[in-house]
Structures are given as C-alpha cells and as structure tokens.
C-alpha cells in the first residue's frame, strides 16, 4: 500500500475511532441524566426558558417575599403546555448587590419540577442567577 493511501487509511481509522468515542460518551452522559426523563425541563425549548426568565424578571422586580407570579409557555410555539410559578423567598445584600432567593416551578405532562436559585440585580437592572 502506498504511503499516501496508508496515511489516508490511518486518518479514516482515527476519525471513526473519535466518532465512536463521542457516541459512547454521549450515551454514557445521557444515561447519567436519565432521571430527568419526562420532567418539565426535558420539554422546554429556548422560547419556554425565555418565558420563564421574563416571568422571573417581573416577579423579582414586583413581588414581595413569599408572593408568587404565575407563568406559562403560551405563544412560544411549543406543543407541550408548560406552566408554573415564580416566588421570591428572601431578599438580602451580597457583594453590594440586591439578591433574592427564588423558587421556580414548572409543570408539564403531570410532572412538577422545582429549582431554588439565588438571583442578584445587576447594574443594568436585570436579575442574573448567582453562581453557586
């Protein structure tokens, strides 16, 4: 076999091996996240997440601790109806920023999912999740 053909053959084998490794890694990764199957997050598309973010911005700006704002994904184009609540829980100051713990709830296909992050108000007036 000429040197050029051997080089192409080795390149093809490396490409196939890399693709196989990626496929195995993806399978293992999704197996580790199997507990998320059929939870609201698995049905959410980018526009649904934007609807939740918009509701969170409004709730964090207008609701008192313990007051909830209802949200839904109507108008996002998703065929799976998703709704829930955003409830600010605790307001405090951190690193000179106004922060609030918030409970985010999403309900889809009979399943409920809850997140409890902390958001801080940035200098531009928008709330951003605080890295934990």
TrEMBL record:
Origin superkingdom: Bacteria
Signal peptide annotation: 1-30
Polar residues bias: start-end ranges: 75-87
Region called Disordered, residue ranges: 67-87
Pfam families: 17kDa_Anti_2 (PF16998)
Swiss-Prot/TrEMBL keywords: Signal
Location of the Surface antigen domain: 26-130
Protein name (record): Surface antigen domain-containing protein
